[in-house]
């Protein structure tokens, strides 16, 4: 192969010097490889004079057949290498969703598809595929995102949650009791306290105090710390609820329903695999919440608005 590559480069450039530069070897190495090939073939491939190097007729015919063969060999080799290399899937998701739901489950996808490398980024900005920064964008919404492939994979129930001490020690069992507690909110909340209070017939209720945070994650952590009550997706708090750190003081009363969508400008086999995995994980999460909430107090969950 070294002799063939040396001859092909020398024949293409009609120069041992240029062939040596292309291959990263010396002029003498190319000359020796070509001489070795000519000896093996028993046919001269070049006419050598002090002033000029030229291909023989046999050399031109051999080069015309050899160059396409080497190009094809390089192509199929690169195709095989690309298939063997991990596929890269760039996923973008809201920060709290990524930290509390997606990341803990990602090892399951990696076990299923070890050939796919997931590059995860987080953002609160509207989905924008024109920037070319991600292949799949996960977002909570009431409707599919227009202008792209937008598929729901999990239903979200937004409910008030708080530290168990607010119920067990301070007796927070009715919505009217919120007047004696702090209401926690965050800049990107999809369901505001005024909306929830209006839904339970308490539009004029005034809490003891209010705390507002930039991101849901901080507001949720404040609730874990016992600072007040926050409206968050139940599936993001369920682990803390099961562990006894948080609770839903009013059950599913006036819960707001949304969907989580996986959005992509186009689809391929890797994206379809990730979408199927998301759908199964979302279904498992929904079933776990349904089992946990069975028989708990609260009005029927309203339709999405």
UniProtKB/TrEMBL annotation:
<dbReference type="InterPro" id="IPR005119">
    <property type="entry name" value="LysR_subst-bd"/>
</dbReference>
<keyword id="KW-0238">DNA-binding</keyword>
<comment type="similarity">
    <text>Belongs to the LysR transcriptional regulatory family.</text>
</comment>
<keyword id="KW-0805">Transcription regulation</keyword>
<dbReference type="InterPro" id="IPR058163">
    <property type="entry name" value="LysR-type_TF_proteobact-type"/>
</dbReference>
<dbReference type="InterPro" id="IPR036388">
    <property type="entry name" value="WH-like_DNA-bd_sf"/>
</dbReference>
<feature type="domain" description="HTH lysR-type">
    <location>
        <begin position="1"/>
        <end position="56"/>
    </location>
</feature>
<keyword id="KW-0472">Membrane</keyword>
<dbReference type="InterPro" id="IPR036390">
    <property type="entry name" value="WH_DNA-bd_sf"/>
</dbReference>
<keyword id="KW-0804">Transcription</keyword>
<dbReference type="Pfam" id="PF00126">
    <property type="entry name" value="HTH_1"/>
</dbReference>
<dbReference type="InterPro" id="IPR000847">
    <property type="entry name" value="LysR_HTH_N"/>
</dbReference>
<keyword id="KW-1133">Transmembrane helix</keyword>
<feature type="transmembrane region" description="Helical">
    <location>
        <begin position="216"/>
        <end position="238"/>
    </location>
</feature>
<keyword id="KW-0812">Transmembrane</keyword>
<dbReference type="Pfam" id="PF03466">
    <property type="entry name" value="LysR_substrate"/>
</dbReference>
<protein>
    <submittedName>
        <fullName>LysR substrate-binding domain-containing protein</fullName>
    </submittedName>
</protein>
